[in-house]
Amino acid sequence: MRYAIFLLMMCLFGCSDATKDGEASPEQVALGFFQAIYVDRDVQEAMQYVDAPIKEVLRSYYIAPSVQRYMLNLSMTDVTLSIEDIDIDFFRKFSDEVTVVVKLVGKKAGAKWIDDRSLKLKKRGNSWIIVEIVPETGKTNVGAF
User: Fold this and answer.
1) Least confident of 18-22, 25-29, 50-54
2) For 53-68, how does the pLDDT look when each residue is reduced to its tens digit (9 = 90+)?
3) Are 97 and 120 within 8 A, CB to CB?
């Protein structure tokens, strides 16, 4: 009986989703990037979440509306963000690469618009960084129907 209780306690404490201090999860990094571009409209703030090649591209656009239009192919206002999907869960501690899909709800040209964008992140040391903005594959807007 003691072994069963010990095993149960190990499972409960070993499966914590909490991150160490100063360590952001992939979801937090993805949401932080989109928050900076769509809500705060601050390209400098967004640069902390991306790898060097993407930083260079961000620097060339200067302002958030240009990043929305040319890098993300989605100009929107009044945006709210949520995590749509993430391709890791239980084995997060053992994975060094992850794809996060972020759902964006807002207005495009004054009309309600719902869309999503995917980001690939890699673990560098103890932190996650965006290494690719995944190109869209012909998805259609759910809010337009």
Assistant:
1) 18-22
2) 999 999 999 899 999 9
3) yes
| Cα within 13 Å of Cα(76), Cβ side | 26
The pTM assigned to this predicted structure is: 0.78
List of long-range contacts for 20-23, beta carbons under 8 Å, 24+ apart: 20/126, 22/126, 23/126, 23/127
Task: Return the SS3 of 15.
Answer: coil
Long-range own/partner contacts, residues 69-75 (CB < 8 A, 24 or more apart): 71/133, 72/37, 72/117, 72/133, 73/136, 74/104, 74/108, 74/115, 74/117, 75/108
